Amino acid sequence: MEDATFTCELCDYDRIRYVHVMVHPQWIGEFRVGCVCDGTMSGNMLAAQERDDAAKRKESRKRAFLKKQWVEHPAGFRVLPKTRRTITAEIDSYRGREFYKVVIDGEPYQWWENRRIETLEAAKAVAFEVLEYERKTD
């Protein structure tokens, strides 16, 4: 969550920022809870705390990434300098509607979560998520 405004669905604590989604084959749907209730429900407080800490570290990396300055290239697209990867964001259009295309080392991303990437800020967030996914799988 952007701010600590979520309310735990188990204990009603109302200042949760990092939401843990719990599922179980004997329950219908999902429970959205905080770290302590995750630890209680899962029976493993240390694992719940590690998941919470991992979310905090990811959020810190994301804030740092989104603060980076992208440079306007003379060809009209934006490029993220000083990275090991070639990362660009360029405006494209389809049927007269503009959207952003993120290109990472030649691999284009025009869609994210079944939607076109409509803003530069969204393009930056997509670039972060792609790099984060690749970081996990390496």
Explain what the structure shows.
The chain is of the alpha+beta class and 138 residues long. The chain folds into 2 domains: 20-61, no CATH class; 68-137. Helix content is 36%, strand content 24%. It contains 3 helices and 9 strands. The chain has helices at 35-42, 45-67, 120-137, and strands at 20-22, 31-33, 71-72, 78-79, 87-94, 97-104, 107-109, 111-112, 115-116. The longest helix has 23 residues, at 45-67. The protein is elongated, with a radius of gyration of 19 Å. The mean pLDDT is 91.
Percent of residues in beta strands: 15-25%
The end-to-end distance, rounded to whole angstroms, is: 27 Å
Main sheet: which strands, in order across?
Answer: 3-4-5-6-7
Give the domain tally: 2
Q: Radius of gyration in whole Å, from Cα?
A: 19 Å
User: What structural category do the secondary elements indicate?
Assistant: alpha+beta
List the helices and strands and how they pair.
Layout (H helix, E strand, L loop, with lengths): L19 E3 L8 E3 L1 H8 L2 H23 L3 E2 L5 E2 L7 E8 L2 E8 L2 E3 L1 E2 L2 E2 L3 H18 L1
Antiparallel strand pairs: 1-2, 3-4, 4-5, 5-6, 6-7, 8-9
List keywords for this structure.
138 residues; alpha+beta; 2 domains; 5-stranded antiparallel sheet
Provide a short characterization of the protein structure:
This protein is of the alpha+beta class and 138 residues long.
